[in-house]
Amino acid sequence: MKLFRAALLSLVLLLPPVVSAQQPAAGSEQTSARLAGEVLVNGRAMEYVRNLSDKFGGRVSGSAAYDRSAEWAAEQFRAAGIKDVRLEPFPLESTWARGRARARMTAPLERPLHLESLGWSPSTPAGGVRGEIYMLTDLSRDFIRRESGKIKGRVVLLDLAALLKDGYAAFTNLVAAQSLLKEAGAAAAVVGSADPNNVLNAFSLNWGARISPLPLAQLGMEDTTLIQRLLPQGAVTVEFQYENRTGGAAVDNNVVAEIRGREHPEEWIIVGAHLDSWDYGTGAQDNGAGCAMVLEAARAIAALGTPPRRSIRFALWGGEEQGLLGSAAYVRAHARELKDCVAALNTDNGAGHPRGWKVEGREDVQAAMTPISESLLAGLGGDGLSPELTFDTDHGHFLLAGVPALDLWVDMKHYDDIHHKPGDTLDKIAAHNLIAGAAVVAVTAHALAERPTRIAPQLKRDAVAGLLKKANLEEFLKAIGVWK
Length: 484
Ligand SMILES: [Zn+2]
Description:
Strands 1-12-14-13-15-18-16-17 form an eight-stranded mixed β-sheet. It has 17 helices and 18 strands. Helix 2 (28-42) runs antiparallel to helix 15 (431-450), helix 3 packs across helix 10 and helix 10 (284-303) crosses helix 15. Helices cover 36% and strands 21% of the residues. The protein binds zinc ion. Residues 1-2, 274, 286-287, 320, 348, 393 line the site of zinc ion.
């Protein structure tokens, strides 16, 4: 997901130095070495991501490509010798598939425009949209109401970078502004991209697979700045057309595989990554890489022959790009078992070299993870621990339930170059980075499942609220209805 990534990278909590904690159980280092060896030497991580990227391609929620990839993934878990593999359905409010757009400026000069539909936008009306540009600088209800005379029949241009400067909060204003613009009679709304060379990145401006109230599109950065330069000199007129395929309520599936624990089978670790992707590229790094790490960790742990003390569930989530829909549904469906969920691991930051884990603002988790990182992950370069707390991928709903959450921290130097873009393809993945990431996930999951005691306690609601407040997330989560 990471919809708000560009705007929100600043949310880091400063943590006091750690105290020494429990050393990993004797023998777990040997097992970890075997696991890492299995992944590094005999691994299938690259094969998994190649299939997801080049066999299924873009796996948009509700699409046939997504369904086929879910069936295939379930087969991979079974081929790894895991008996308990299932598809867990969850609802999608609507389905959507992109129709390619044709767009051009018609005045003051004639030229083609780099524009495509946003996700879950309705099609343009018959004959397309044609109108003068109106630049919207304020998302507030009063301002849009006051300006409705100027907005009516026009194409409203939104400068996202400027509008999103208030971080998460602005996102909720953006969602609300859509129906206000519809009411005001706007022909359509267009958001300017922040990426150079008129490269577009796919996303939707809704939390949930909901069709927007009016046509929404994204315009290339240079095209946007051209319009911003021309507007003070007079009217700018554009026209564009696209026919998306939208459908009503549907069902998507999470893919879940479980290795039952030998001593405490009722206690479980969950290791997840989202399987759905956007459609410009082939979803290689977002999030084929994460899925490959989860599949590979499952294969390597199953190959050990002896199950760990506690159970490990491996989950490939659907609906993440539409608002963490699959993992949210899972947390709801398994609410009664959550008290026995010892930790939720997530990987959704691409295939850069692993650096370690983000401990989502929890000092106690950082303290407890330190000996594991130092003794088991240093050789893989994954012994870093970051305090960063985010709610933009599938560890989010486990975190809200108080479960200790860990999000794989990787080198993201080049991630923005491909994130939701046409360049998110297999050729950008360096095998040794992906394989090292898979080894960090496998070794950590096994260590947490094998540990004599739980890594950390579950947090009560008020303690979770404290974390969210510190991270400036509470208002946003309330606004999107996930934190009451
Ligand atoms: Zn993602």
